[in-house]
Specification:
Largest sheet: none
Strand content: under 5%
Number of domains: 1
Structural class: mainly alpha
Order of helices and strands: HHHHH
Number of helices: 5
Shape: elongated
Number of strands: 0
Helix content: over 70%
Length: 128
Amino acid sequence: MFADYEKTEDDAEKQSLAGRICAALKVHTQIEEEIFYPAAYEALEDDDLLDEAEVEHASAKELIAQIEASSPSEPLYDAKVKVLGEYVDHHVQEEEKELFPECRDSAMELKALGEQMRTRKEELSAAS
């Protein structure tokens, strides 16, 4: 969706894409914070990556709030969406390269956790 946003010049399409991006990220962060992070904090000895991820979530939530409270015609709107995309990209890279390998090497019940997260995502998506 971020790539589609970068390609469009139409304000209505930008607003629609930004809304979809924000909604998806709000569901994603809520699921990680409710289910994944508590399990990872319990299973992993080193909390540094999880602490960083929580700070990244806080920064992303702040940008999401700013994006949702404004429109493409306002100054910095495009920059906020772009920076949000950069935050997400950085966050995903850290999770995939550092956090997830540690989780796979731990005693975490990843399949059960994944199912719990999938169910919660369906609940949150249905509510929005």
